[in-house]
Design brief:
The complex is a heterodimer of chains A (164) and B (265).
Chain A: E1 3-8, E2 11-16, H1 23-30, E3 49-52, E4 55-58, E5 71-73, H2 86-93, H3 103-117, H4 123-129, H5 141-155
Parallel strand pairs in A: 1-5
Antiparallel strand pairs in A: 1-2, 3-4, 3-5
Chain B: E1 5-7, H1 12-21, E2 25-28, H2 34-39, E3 47-50, E4 60-63, E5 66-70, H3 75-80, H4 82-87, H5 89-95, H6 101-104, H7 109-115, H8 122-128, E6 132-135, E7 139-141, H9 142-145, E8 160-166, E9 170-177, E10 184-192, E11 197-202, E12 210-211, H10 213-218, H11 225-228, H12 246-263
Parallel strand pairs in B: 1-3, 2-3
Antiparallel strand pairs in B: 4-5, 5-8, 6-7, 6-8, 9-10, 10-11, 11-12
The chains are: A alpha+beta (164), B alpha+beta (265).
Chain lengths: 164, 265
């Protein structure tokens, strides 16, 4: 089997994988990083969003081998030790989740959104940008509020995670 | 998903050599269509040739009167490129309307063009802008490139390297989305090079993307919304499905054309 070598949350990882292995399977089943979820497995729901070389991607629609040499950041790498990332804290503060299944993907998408769109995000922008992330519990209101608050909090320079 | 052998060439030459040797092979660019298709076993290949390690294929630049976009440029890169926004703003806008942000971060123009999905956005832009697809073997004008549903003029072992767009005077794009899938139910791309205006339609044709004779005839009256107001588009050869009947799509083509011209820059 071919070998993939990449960095996940700042740590070098190397493993032999079947070429069919999706990045999300590699993260969950090889590295046991189960924070990244598989929802629809058809690249629609966004529960599997991680960052690859600083960009949000759906890890169910990428081969692990394609991530050769990449820098991957998952939800597990976002917090700084026991201090939550400002976006995670904002989801908690704003009750931005109910069952929590979509939350890792929502948060990774939100952090990517802030990187691309800045720290002052209006409701319309946030809702539009969430096109690829589905939540079946909240009705999105509190997720939108959480992202707006988290984006502002990221500006004030709270310490963030390990990679990318 | 059926099993396959994975290849990761580092240059176009090596990729070509692999394709020449491998019996049953597919190129992999962003994979946003290929991987879901493999998962569903709609398609399978013995060999997957991943282009990701080939450097320089994602370059975006203006050369003379043309905008050149590398095959591996992602939709996100095209949508946010200052070069594209300056040269053909409608193309940047179109790229920003494909899929969702995470899909745009991975999906590529080369992949979209090679796949020729009947509801994809790029093929309409290539046709209306009179673009040229530059491959590892030749240059193919858009008018000769798209050959029906998921079919193109690409031969075995041929790799798209770039798409060259002549910079128009004005161009615009409008799409009416399927509310569930967000794919184009009808998308119309219009372009005016100062002499002639071209209009291409995606999402609606039974044989995929096509140029609309009715719209192009109407645009001879001038590249303005009034020219296409009330234009009768034939429903012949248009899709009828659970999402929209052919006559409804025909009507939408006129509406989208008007909006595309209004938005043109």
């Amino acid at each position: 089997m071919p070998t993939v070598t990449l960095k996940v949350n700042g740590k070098k990882q190397s493993a032999d994988v079947d070429p069919r292995t999706l990045l999300v399977q590699f993260l969950r089943e090889h590295l046991r990083l189960t924070g990244t979820h598989v929802g629809c497995d058809t690249s629609q729901c966004g529960a599997c969003v991680v960052h690859v070389n600083g960009h949000a991607v759906k890890s169910c629609t990428m081969f692990a081998l394609s991530a050769e040499g990449a820098d991957v950041l998952t939800i597990e790498g976002l917090a700084n030790g026991s201090a939550l990332h400002p976006m995670q804290e904002a989801f908690r503060e704003n009750h931005g989740l109910q069952c929590g299944f979509c939350t890792p993907g929502m948060i990774m998408t939100a952090v990517d959104m802030v990187k691309r769109k800045g720290n002052d995000l209006d409701e319309e922008t946030i809702r539009h940008e969430l096109e690829g992330n589905l939540c079946r519990c909240t009705g999105y209101h509190n997720i939108v509020k959480a992202i707006a608050a988290g984006a502002k909090a990221m500006k004030s320079g709270a310490k963030t995670g390990k990679a990318a | 998903m059926h099993s396959f052998t994975y290849h990761r060439p580092v240059n176009v030459k090596a990729a070509q050599a692999l394709l020449a040797k491998a019996k049953d092979a597919s190129l992999l660019a962003g994979g946003q269509t290929l991987i879901p298709s493999l998962k569903l076993r709609l398609t399978d290949f013995d060999n997957i040739v991943d282009l990701k390690a080939i450097k320089g294929l994602d370059k975006i630049e203006v050369k003379g009167k043309n905008l050149l976009i590398g095959a591996l440029a992602t939709h996100g890169a095209v949508a946010t490129s200052a070069v594209v926004k300056r040269a053909i703003p409608a193309l940047a806008k179109l790229a920003g309307m494909i899929g969702d942000p995470a899909v745009r971060n991975v999906g590529t123009i080369g992949g979209s063009v090679a796949n020729n999905d009947p509801a994809a956005d790029y093929p309409g832009a290539l046709l209306a802008l009179n673009a040229t697809v530059i491959t590892s073997k030749r240059k193919i004008p858009a008018d000769k490139f798209f050959k029906g549903l998921f079919e193109t003029a690409l031969g075995k072992g041929e790799i798209i390297l770039q798409v060259s767009f002549p910079i128009p005077k004005k161009a615009g794009y409008a799409k009416f989305r399927n509310p569930a899938s967000r794919f184009a139910l009808v998308g119309v791309f219009v372009a005016d090079d100062g002499k002639t205006a071209r209009a291409a339609v995606t999402g609606a044709g039974e044989q995929g993307v096509f140029r609309s004779k009715e719209l192009e005839a109407a645009l001879k009256k001038g590249f303005k919304p009034e020219s296409v107001a009330g234009v009768k588009v034939s429903a012949n050869g248009l899709n009828s499905d659970i999402h929209a009947a052919a006559d409804y799509r025909a009507h939408l083509i006129g509406v989208m054309a008007k909006r595309a011209i209004e938005a043109a820059a």
